[in-house]
Write a structure and sequence with these properties.
By secondary structure, this protein is mainly beta. It has 2 domains: 111 residues, no CATH class; 96 residues, Jelly Rolls (Sandwich). The chain has 3 helices and 21 strands.
Length: 284
């Protein structure tokens, strides 16, 4: 009986002293009787007994690893003090490794961008700054001392509005252009039996009728934005009069009956759901 008890004690001791094999990512890193968690690079291990087992949970040392909320207030601040339109800045929270599409910054400059300008962040190289359409130069809409959101689309930095609010009444025209910044200039529409008018391609849309096509219907691709204006120019060919009807997303005064060799202009305004005709001039 004493021998059996001694055998059980020895077996338990041997089992207790058995090594544990540890693997990381499926690859063994060693085996030993003790597994030790070492906190490094700001990572902390917290372990405690729980229901016959020991549970460990990782955490972080905020004195080493800064929480995103701690640095969020400055990580997007870009202040240029170059006294020129070749803007340059360092991001307050660190160094940018590369320009990436979607990068968003609050830009503060000390010189107004009256024509063309560039931005160089963390020495990565100058990138052109454009209005929100990605094509038009700022032309005064980026003012000195006034913060403005900009975002990188993969090729250029685009202004997202917010600048030029305190430049005085003499700049009303520039502010009006900024308020309509998602509308481009002129769209030339190919004439067909059904013409698609792309409302985001411009605020003036022009088409010239073709005798081979005959009459046509113009459809607006979208109902537009509330308060958006647009103008449509229809040039009738020299051979015979054509009738142009306004279809999808339009509420017009009726079909436009053209005259050979004459032009007509129509103005529309959107309430966000429909384009309403407000003016029409024919036989120009």
């Amino acid at each position: 009986m004493k021998s059996a008890a001694l055998f059980l004690c020895l077996s338990a001791a041997l089992a207790w002293a058995q090594n544990i094999t540890v693997q990381v990512g499926g690859r063994p890193v060693g085996s030993a009787s003790v597994l030790n968690f070492d906190s490094a690079d700001g990572i902390i291990q917290s372990c405690h007994p729980e229901g016959g087992r020991i549970t460990c949970a990782p955490a972080y040392d905020s004195n080493i690893v800064a929480h995103r909320d701690t640095i969020h207030g400055t990580q997007n601040l870009c202040t240029s003090n170059t006294r020129s339109t070749s803007y340059a800045c360092r991001i307050a929270s660190g160094t940018l490794q590369a320009y990436g599409a979607g990068l968003t910054l609050v830009l503060m400059v000390d010189a107004a961008c009256d024509k063309q300008c560039t931005l160089n962040v963390d020495g990565l190289g100058p990138i052109g700054i454009k209005r929100s359409d990605g094509v038009t130069d700022p032309l005064g809409t980026l003012a000195a001392g006034e913060p403005q959101w900009v975002f990188y689309d993969g090729q250029v930095f685009r202004l997202m509005g917010g600048g030029g609010g305190s430049r005085g009444p003499a700049q009303d025209r520039d502010r009006d252009v900024m308020g309509r910044r998602f509308i481009a200039s002129l769209e030339i529409m190919a004439y067909a039996r059904t013409v698609s008018l792309e409302t985001t391609a411009g605020d003036v849309h022009k088409t010239t009728t073709s005798n081979a096509v005959g009459n046509a219907t113009i459809n607006a691709a979208t109902p537009g934005l509330p308060g958006q204006h647009m103008w449509v120019i229809v040039v009738n060919d020299q051979i015979s009069p054509k009738t142009v009807t306004f279809g999808l997303n339009f509420k017009s005064a009726g079909p436009l009956a053209g005259s050979a060799g004459k032009s007509a202009t129509l103005q529309f305004i959107s309430d966000g759901s429909t384009w309403y005709e407000v003016a029409r001039t024919t036989n120009l």
